[in-house]
Amino acid sequence: MTRTQDHERLSELKKILIVGSGGRENSIAWALAQNKNIQQIYVCPGNGGTSSYKKCVCLKSKSESEASIIKDCQRLKIDLVIIGPEDPLAAGLADKLRKSGLIVFGPCKEGAKLEASKDWAKTLMIDNNIPTANYWTTESEEEALRILESYGGPLVIKADGLAAGKGVTVCKTIQESKNAIEEVFSGKFGSAGKKIILEEKIEGPEVSIFALTDGEKLIVLPPAQDHKRLLDGDKGPNTGGMGAYAPATLVNQDDLIEIEEQILKPTLKGLQNKGIKYIGVIYAGLMLTSSGPKVIEFNCRFGDPECQALMPLMGEELAAVLFSCALGELEKSPKLSFKNTCSACVIAASQGYPENPKKGDIIDIQIEPNPSLQIFHSGTKINQNDNLITSGGRVLSVVTQGQNFNEAFQLAYKSLNKINFKGMHYRKDVGYQVRNNYSG
Ligand code: AMP
Ligand code: GLY
Questions:
Q1: Ligand 1 atom 11: the closest Cα is on which residue?
Q2: How far is the centre of ligand 1, averaged over its atoms, from the C-alpha of 366 (Å)?
Q3: Nearest C-alpha to atom 4 of ligand 2 is from which residue?
Q4: Ligand 1 first shell, C-beta below 6 A
Q5: Does residue 164 contact residue 86 with C-beta atoms inside 8 Å?
């Protein structure tokens, strides 16, 4: 192909379908809509906020089955499908869509094992000398208890499969480790708990690194930091994430190059060696230990809420970059630029989140439009009376940009004062690592 033909291929990208219903998918839709060539973005099923972003609409398929998504894509002449969450990826949605001739950003079922089986991912790491915590794996409860006993200290206990973020227990005592082993084998996690990973505890700040890949080459995005715990001061139970900011200052440009060379490229090589053409996001959850960055987990998709903080930093080339990845031709894509600004995201959650989130409360938003502010809806829907109501644990992602993080978070928290729903709660200290106007 000549450069002109490349350009023509990329300019064919007009209609995009994004699979998913969270803040992550809405933020991707919003970012892609910034590209003037994009005519329409469907989010399937989307949520109560999707159609508030220009060019974006919800696609309510009769069912969310693969067959109906394929039919809709054909009917609507979709040029690119982006799959947001891990569950459909692990179930092989990307494979089925590709088989029907669609162009898809998101890994195949085999590649999604990077997230869907911790044992599989660990083996790939060991085989490719990727730094990670030492571990053992077994399908037997007795053996797990024996490993614990001979180790002689508390371990991190992980169910092998997808457990909606609840399959990991970082234990403080041997007794806690025993309880966590029993819990995994109790059937609580279904087939995800057939196998167990026992891991040595490592220490250090955590950072989320995202690479976009066409299976051969990759582009590393600015680093982001998530806030997994429910309460200020990193206390309380683990959640899907209560806030994020990017670019995280925990890693500088040199560190990022090292992470690319020692972690991301070997991961891609390892996937290639298994015959997997991995198209999509490689999300490396890293711990920055005293002996260098180590992988805590891999995910096969963007993080939520890291994605919401990252998307406003993306240049409008993002659409062409994702399309080029999906076509397996990243080298033909324009260079992805990043805005030189600080981005903050604070999650407003519903009463009872994460254990027992309450749904159905009316949401009141009294915010003036501002180019440095985006409200990405996560768990919302429109009810029969046309009211916006809560429909999930994480309700809204309030995302703001500023010259520095103080400015960005100031706007985020000012905006949160103008949002209201019954039982709404949020962390007041998101970004404490990079704000000097937060006193704790
Ligand atoms: P994961 O679902 O694997 O990301 O684990 C959830 C959280 O558990 C991580 O964000 C870490 O805070 C913690 N964690 C996981 N593995 C380890 C480990 N080996 N050592 C210490 N903390 C860990
Ligand atoms: N924010 C963590 C995740 O998406 O898994």
A1: 296
A2: 38
A3: 303
A4: 133, 156, 168, 170, 199, 201-202, 206, 228, 285, 296-297
A5: no
CATH fold, domain 3-105, is: Rossmann fold (3.40.50)
H/E segment holding residue 124:
helix 118-127
- Strand partners for 209: 284
* Residue nearest (by alpha carbon) to ligand 1 atom 19: 201
* Average predicted confidence (pLDDT) for the chain: 94
Q: Indicate the pairing of strand 235-238 with strand 229-231.
A: antiparallel
* pLDDT per position as a tens digit, 361-376: 999 999 999 999 999 9
Q: Say if CB 96 and CB 66 are below 8 A apart.
A: yes
* Ligand 2 pocket residue status of 6, Cβ below 6 Å: no
Q: Find the 241 Cα to ligand 2 centroid distance in Å.
A: 6
217 C-alpha vs ligand 1 centroid, how far in Å? 28
Closest Cα partner for 130 from 280, 299, 319, 260?
A: 260
- pLDDT band for 6, please (50, 70, 90 cuts): low
CATH of the domain spanning 135-199, picked from 3.30.420.100, 3.30.1490.20, 3.40.109.10, 3.20.20.140: 3.30.1490.20
| 228 alpha carbon – ligand 2 mean position (Å) | 8
Alpha-carbon dihedral 202, 204, 210, 215, rounded to 10 degrees: -30
For residue 435 the two structure tokens come to 């704000």
CATH 3.40.50.1380 given to domain 203-332: no
Banded model confidence at residue 193, pLDDT cuts 50, 70, 90? confident
Please name the residue whose Cα sits nearest to atom 5 of ligand 2. 303
Q: DSSP E strands: which ranges in 227-273? A: 229-231, 235-238, 243-246
Average pLDDT over residues 63-89: 92
Model confidence, pTM: 0.95
CA of residue 417 to ligand 1 center, whole Å: 33
